[in-house]
Amino acid sequence: MNTTLKHPTCFVTSFVFGFLFLISIGCKKDVQINNTETSSTTSVRSAKPLKFSSNTKQDINLDVFVPCANGGVGETANMTGPLHILTTFTISDNFVSGTNHFQPQGISGTGDVTGTKYQATGITDDKFKGSLVNGQYQSTYVNNFRIIGQGTGNNFLVHEIVHLTINANGTATNYVDNFSIECK
User: Fold this and answer.
1) Higher-pLDDT residue of 152, 38
2) Number of folded domains in the chain?
3) Which of 26, 57, 156, 167 has a CA 20 to 30 Å removed from the CA of 69?
């Protein structure tokens, strides 16, 4: 089953954050002009990149409805365990970029009807970059969310890719949203 969403939450959140950040800060360069009687020179000095990185694990407790479980009737699995979260953010010269990376590490649960054991797997990545001068912006969001059950027929697979490109004129030149849900 393939479904297309016109305004997914991940896209809106990423775009709004990136857009608000870009319009809320300015790019500053130190400009030094030396004038003497015999010559004049201009030199531009760029600041060192501003970098932020966070690498953590967060325990989560998440109820996930697995529609293909329980003979196709579905059931809810309470999933618990650590989620790896890596966030980076860099401002360098006239550009800003960042990533968000989420990966379950040992997240598991049990179905509320059948008692089937489930494992959470997959990776979610969100990357963006933009210009602080002319408003060019690019964002790519990839989500592979998988709840894997014992045996066959109760694996819940969600896949989404969202990509946005905005040119220097502020025009969205590329927007793709591929979203699919599959039961195996």
Assistant:
1) 152
2) 1
3) 57
